[in-house]
Amino acid sequence: MNHQTTAPGFEKHPDYQVDIKATGDRVRILAGDRVVIDTTHPLQVTESRHHPVWYLPLADADPSLLTRTDHSTYCPFKGNASYWSIDHPDPALANSVWAYEDPYRECVPLKDHLAFYTDRVTLEVNGEIQKAEAPGWSS
After folding, report:
1. Domain ranges of the chain
2. Coil, strand or helix: which one is 64?
3. Contact 56, 40 (CB under 8 A)
4. CB burial of residue 82 (10 Å; 0-12, 13-18, 19+)
5. CA distance 132 to 72
6. Less Cβ around it within 10 Å: N or C end of the chain?
7. pLDDT tens profile 62-96
8. CATH class assigned to 2-129
């Protein structure tokens, strides 16, 4: 299990940071007019040289709108990511949701949380629509 293992990325890059902060913000994700998730228990993750990403409790998602896929990716700081598609006619919503189901020890708070490609869905924070931004390297 990864959550007992130190992330190899931090061993190679000790100055790299993944800051995970619980906030009391109300965060909603919408796919068209469908509410995929509505929560007041989000985590905001700020990672070195990356745009901030919201991780939202899986328990607050509408499971009828999510379908697990075979897609996966790997992060040397967080671990293996699993993916879901949002059930919606828009093909851009395929593999638009990910989670670290068994994250490395440094990122254990991310367990049971989902993240979304906000350039494919609508992200609202405290009722305000946020800029659509793919996660990844910030400029």
Report:
1. 2-129
2. helix
3. no
4. middle
5. 23
6. C
7. 999 999 999 999 999 999 999 999 998 889 999 99
8. mainly beta
